[in-house]
Structures
1.
Amino acid sequence: MTTTTHGCDPATAVTRSLLGWGAVAGPFYVAVSLAQASTRDGFDLTRHPWSLLETGSLGWIQSANFVLTGGMVAAFAVGLARAGAGRWAPRLLALYGAGLAAAGVFTADPMAGFPAGTAAGAAEATSWHGTLHLAAGGIGFLAMIAACLVLGRRFAAGGMPGWALASRVTGVAFLAAFAGITTGSTAATVPFAAGVVLSFGWLTALAVHTYRNA
């Protein structure tokens, strides 16, 4: 990572502005999701993935949450590239942002008793937009995991073992959480949500770190 401090020239100001969105994206997404989870009738954090908040009459809120968060992550990725973070990490994070945005455009299918009146268990039928939602999310999550591992290697090469370890642990933990949720078991819901929060925590810390050194 580039750690040289530059003056407040216009180019640096633009880079820092883009990096700032990375610090906002995670807290924004988590706060909006949890606010809905605590107020939407029938939503159970222990059984329902946050994507299901896209369903029902208020589903547009979570859809917008996905799109806006994806845009913020993509903006951060541009800032990260401008800050000298190499080639692959910014591209992977941009892909993650695009995946989030696409998951907002292509909404999830109702399932597991949510929204109220939906049959328990898996979705009765998978719609085209539900299929694209899963594909976009899967590609995005894998890109995020890869970005963690790529930056872990970059930090290690740059003599920053703490950041290297944090990046690698985040990537591996998120991979395990993602693998669990793909099984369809409700027991994996909470670990996956924890993985999402962890990965966004890492992204926020990375944005702050890079901003300070831009």
2.
Amino acid sequence: MLCLALPAAGAGLAAACHRWPNLREAMSLTSAAALFFLLSSFTQDVLQGERPELVLGEVLPGLALALELEPLGLLFALIASGLWFVSGVYSIGYMRGNQEPHQTRFYVCFALAIASAIGVALAGNLLTLYLFYEALTLVTYPLVTHHGDDEARRGGRVYLALLLLSSMLFLLPAIAITWWVSGTLDFAPGGILAGKVTGWAAAGLLALYAFGIGKAALMPIHRWLPAAMVAPTPVSALLHAVAVVKAGVFTVVKVIVYVFGFDFPRDAFAWLPWVAGFTIVAASVVALRSDNLKRRLAYSTVSQLSYVVLAAALLTPLSVVGAALHIAAHSVSKITLFFAAGAIYTAAHKTEVSQLDGIGRRMPVTMVAFTIGAISLIGLPPAVGFVSKWYIMQAAFGAQTLLPAAVILASSLLNVAYFMPIVYAAFFRAPPAGEAHGEAPLASVLALAATAAGTVALFFAPQVPLALARALVGS
């Protein structure tokens, strides 16, 4: 219960301390650190097979609001809580450096978003997951529309409409059908639908889940993500790395593992790798053509999320391990890239890729961190993205299917094409004459340096996420 109470308390304390900015931010950081250490204390028990659970209340006979901590949920919760702390440090530099308005509202909604993400991570059944999933959409809307201008409101409308409509029109009916067919919404190892729905009906139910989980950003349910880039950069980091999109791909993996199960007939999943593969390549092409840095990173996220969907759709234990690892790898890598983009905007007021000539000479720490994040998403050592892509490729070869391997290779080459020119221009081209800015505020630089270091550290020491991923599949 404390796992939900701590971020909620952090939101309340931030609101109460609105007149004292230093105390407000200290309360936010303290709540984040306490939540991370609390969740970390469960790690050994979960790895040894324990599944702590708590029933919050019964809605109908046999249908309860329930929490249960299992390996995938713990992995997601550790990512969200750990990156909440780093985002809090970064936000101090960014929000003050850009003199952003409504900073208390920002910290309150950020904490409530983490509380909702933790609720998604700890959900013991589909009903509980759905309620927290929707809560996450609603509490992040004020963050997306933070600036309050016409552009922010337009982006917020797209964000809210696509996420709410997809979940109500597709995800909610999928949950109702699952209840009707199986008689339960509880997550169970091995799945709850095996032998109860087959053929086209099974493929259709999977489609309702895949497109109803709009936060996973499968095309064409993806436009909310670039539309939300009107938000401040710490919000972009929240959307892309900490909570929102990770709640989406986490839910996809959880449904595949605990609702459908590894023994589910594979013909129902035959179409999903093609949709995920198309999303990976198409989003990479859009990213390649985008000059706005945050837009390029947004479409990179759309592409990278479908790595997780593609891997999970292979329906093998090894592919699901790769999917779970890529959730962690993408989180720490992409937050580094967004932190760097925000630092560039804060220090140099630059937003376009074409403006970044020589910026590595003015902001070396920021651009080295950016390079590490880019290398990770390309899938090169020594960065953690190599580890997750290795597992997914091994699963693809083990399943004797060439589509995932071909898609990952093509996407990696496209990643090189849209990331490496930024790095080249930053370090090997001369900066504009008379440009004299330096690094962003210290808090922001410390945060992006920490996440870049984490990206490398997880390459050499991936034991915790790897152990939780293996425990997810029972091996």
3.
Amino acid sequence: MNITSAEFFCSYSSLNGLPSDGRPEIVFVGRSNVGKSSLLNSLCARKGLAKTSSTPGKTRLINYFLINKGLYFVDLPGYGYAKVGQSERESWGALLSGYIEKRQEIGLVVVLVDARHPGMASDREMIEYLDYCERPFGIALTKWDKLKQAEKSKARRTMESCAPKAKFIVNYSSFSGEGREKLLTQLDIFSQ
């Protein structure tokens, strides 16, 4: 996939009013602070396209980005340790699960996993949930540049055992750009 245009489209706080124009959606999901915004900016080669923050849990809405005028990248709220109240965390969970279960336009879900912490319970739960919903998914191991060589092998093996039904596992570094072309190639397959 060659990304020639990428623009913020809209944010949604509920499942009502989501785009109904038939464009396919590639969804990005992961724990809070896994680097979703950084990956989206790197992938689209657009600094500031998705807002980044050092505070986990800043993405509280379903954010749509229009790619090449023909498909959407969708950034879902992070799961995990965001410092918010229980009721807000529950409403995020309901929003996230409702979207994944009901949205017909989803072509692929990309689960971002921090390569420094592969196989965490919350990531395993998401992978099992996607499998249960029969959603095709792939894995992007983020922050790959922060690992030593021995850690890279271990992280890769851990994810292969945690996600045997993943369509792909790509090692990704938003800092160096490693894995960008491999991930774009995989996304191209599911963007039709």
